[in-house]
Design goal:
With about 180 residues, the chain is of the alpha/beta class. The chain contains 7 helices and 4 strands. It is globular.
């Protein structure tokens, strides 16, 4: 690969330089699901991504949201919850929580390398296993990105916790 090929590829991605740089360093190229998904998501369209396992659907759904969280000003404390991910299974929610930390860490590192400042992004998970003290903490300090299950989402929507969801801009529903 010629020296400018990586720069060309990174600059052709529809994200901030830090996010595009991280993606380029980790992946050879976007998958068709990612390429088409990002076009639709970034156009502001409701988007359904249907593709085989291993095609990058989860990253396609999350990367635009992560890039936006990292590059937009941090809102007031009680208005931070802007991305909601609904997982059909608690086990998948735990996997997504673990897997999202890699791009968040990697993009932050790339931003530091580039001398670019990014906003802090907090991540939390709310399932039936979440202790009451953590649930209360989420109400006092909502995360930027909340991972939950349908059952926990229902409980949140029917309680005081629904206030935390008033500022959500992006909803990602997995495994429809």
């Amino acid at each position: 690969m010629a020296p400018n090929d990586a720069q060309t590829q990174a600059s052709s991605l529809p994200f901030s330089p830090a996010t595009a740089g991280w993606f380029d360093a980790v992946f050879a190229a976007p998958t068709p699901a990612q390429d088409l998904g990002w076009r639709s998501i970034l156009a502001g369209d409701h988007t359904l991504i249907h593709a085989p396992t291993g095609s990058g659907k989860t990253l396609a759904a999350f990367l635009a949201a992560i890039d936006s969280l990292l590059t937009s000003p941090t809102p007031d404390k009680l208005e931070r919850c802007r991305v909601l991910y609904v997982s059909p299974l608690k086990a998948l929610a735990y996997d997504v929580d673990r897997n999202l930390r890699a791009p968040l860490t990697g993009i932050r590192a790339e931003a530091t390398r580039m001398g670019v400042e990014v906003s802090p992004v907090s991540l939390a998970m709310r399932t039936g296993d979440t202790p009451p003290a953590e649930r209360q903490q989420m109400l006092r300090n909502p995360p930027d990105l909340l991972i939950t299950t349908p059952e926990s989402l229902y409980l949140m929507l029917t309680s005081r916790a629904r206030e935390m969801l008033a500022t959500v801009e992006t909803v990602i529903i997995d495994e429809i």
